[in-house]
Fold this sequence. Notes:
The structure is a single chain. The protein has a single domain, classed as At1g16640 B3 domain (Beta Barrel). The protein is built from 2 helices and 7 strands; from the N terminus they run E-E-H-E-E-E-H-E-E. The mean pLDDT is about 95. By secondary structure, it is an alpha+beta fold. The chain is globular, with a radius of gyration of 13 Å. Helices cover about 15% and strands about 35% of the residues. A hairpin with a 4-residue loop joins strand 3 and strand 4. The protein starts with a strand and ends with a strand.
Amino acid sequence: xxxxxxxxxxxxxxxxxxxxxxxxxxxxxxxxxxxxxxxxxxxxxxxxxxxxxxxxxxxxxxxxxxxxxxxxxxxxxxxxxxxxxxxxxxxxxxxxxxxxxxxxxx
Length: 106
């Protein structure tokens, strides 16, 4: 599924304040409301568990946020980005609650 970078707008140099934004159709298709977290594996092989913020994820903020996502974006020159130009990413479901995150930016 195609996702994009998310930021709280503070452009933190250490990674906090970043995450990924998922469109509502993909959220409905690939995520389950009973999940409290998901596991994301980065293209470098490292993986993290990311909590799903109960309520907001399923209402109006379908985002997965965690400092390590920001650290990976910064390390791969994906963050910070110009206003309204977040990086395009691919979040690949590999099994229940497990995904691989890859950059689509060249």
